[in-house]
From TrEMBL:
Entry GO CC: plasma membrane
Name under which the protein is recorded: Uncharacterized protein
Pfam (any one): ASC
Native species: Patella caerulea (Rayed Mediterranean limpet)
GO molecular function terms noted in the UniProt entry: ligand-gated sodium channel activity
Length: 387
């Protein structure tokens, strides 16, 4: 690349921004300097440069099987089976022997500016979901042969009022019913919805897009001044706001599905290549020697550990039926206890009244028996005598 070109100076400034003057991009020349994806393709490594050889099962892959995207600004990625922009989703592995094998050359001698590490990142995600900086990735370094065994975990979370996914609400609606929300993707995903929302926000406030946003033929690409000013500001604010579930609804309508698929990786590594392989690599013009090979080449094997799918569902500790039955039981207990107590009180009152009445009538009967005997007493000769 011509070191006097604006593109070179832009990339140099981006890579060395912490080392150079912070006002580097305030130069008026950047107002008219536009960086497009086609410009970047001229300076980045392409699939033909990186993939020395690739095969899936018994089928050999070519560069057309790898689609170049941008995980973040100026970070190129090559996606295999990235079907999130296609209508039909087909499985790429149907048995345990289906293995994806990649021989990668990182071309370390072409690294520029202030690259601190040498290697690549491996990001594995569902095919109907685009990747971004939040997609979990594994860093791989040259000089190793990696074997990646995948386990698939399907999670189902609980919506409001439980909100079992990081205390955030989710929707039980199917992805097929949610896809009408999106404009650019055939398959609905939460990340895809956020990417569309961010693209719309940048278009609305800046009037242009960069290589990282969703590409639209009718959109203009930003100048360097717009990239470093408006676009960077909108993107940083959006990323900060979307960290909190309460803020997302105020930015865009992106329901989070209550189901999610994650891939757990078991990674093992060994040195690559072996000494005995050097002659073959030299004959194929893949490396000039062992040192060159271990500085640039790596082998990656990706397969499933098993064809078993682990489904993990969140269930409430107390369901509505449990709550109603418990409340009914407690109400029955307390009502039963209250009625029993009331009956006991009534019984005591009745017994007390009965006792009082019985005592009263017994006194009257005694008095009635005494009075007739007194009436039979007569007086004779001044002395009372009984007749």
């Amino acid at each position: 690349m011509n070191r006097t070109s604006d593109l070179y100076q832009f990339l140099y400034g981006k890579q060395t921004i912490d080392l150079v003057n912070r006002s580097y991009f305030s130069d008026p020349k950047w107002n008219t300097t536009i960086v497009t994806p086609s410009d970047l393709e001229k300076v980045v490594l392409n699939a033909r440069d990186m993939f020395v050889h690739a095969h899936h099962g018994r089928g050999v892959l070519n560069v057309s099987h790898f689609q170049m995207n941008y995980r973040k600004p100026l970070e190129t990625c090559f996606t295999y089976n990235g079907q999130w922009k296609q209508k039909d989703l087909t499985p790429i592995m149907s048995n345990e022997d289906d293995t994806l094998v990649l021989y990668v050359d990182i071309n370390q001698d072409h690294y520029a500016f202030t690259s601190l590490t040498a290697g690549m990142s491996l990001c594995i995600h569902p095919p109907d979901e685009p990747f971004d900086t939040k997609t979990p990735c594994t860093s791989l370094s040259p000089g190793h042969a990696y074997e990646v065994k995948l386990s698939v975990h399907d999670y189902t979370y609980l919506p409001d009022p439980y909100n079992s996914y990081q205390s955030m609400d989710c929707t039980t609606a199917t992805k097929s019913s949610l896809k009408k929300i999106l404009k650019y993707f055939y398959h609905y995903s939460y990340r895809g919805c956020l990417m569309e929302c961010l693209t719309d926000k940048i278009l609305e406030e800046c009037g242009c897009i960069t290589e990282h946003e969703i590409q639209n033929a009718s959109s203009n690409y930003c100048s360097v001044t717009q990239r470093e000013g408006c676009v960077s500001s909108v993107r940083n604010k959006f990323n900060t706001d979307t960290l909190y579930a309460s803020n997302i609804s105020g930015l865009c309508y992106c329901p989070r599905p209550c189901s999610n698929v994650l891939y757990d990786q078991d990674l093992s590594a060994s040195f690559f290549p072996a000494d005995s392989l050097i002659d073959y690599l030299k004959a194929g013009n893949f490396a000039t020697g062992l040192e060159d090979a271990r500085s640039n080449l790596m082998m990656i094997k990706i397969s499933f550990k098993s064809l078993m799918l682990t489904h993990i569902s969140h269930v409430p500790d107390v369901t509505l039926d449990d709550l109603v039955s418990r409340m009914g039981g407690l109400m029955g207990f307390y009502i039963g206890a209250s009625v029993l107590t009331l009956l006991e009180v009534v019984d005591v009152i009745i017994r007390s009244v009965s006792t009082i009445i019985a005592s009263y009538f017994s006194v009257e009967i005694v008095n009635n028996k005494v009075k007739p005997e007194l009436n039979k007493t007569t007086v004779k000769d001044g002395m009372p005598n009984k007749s």
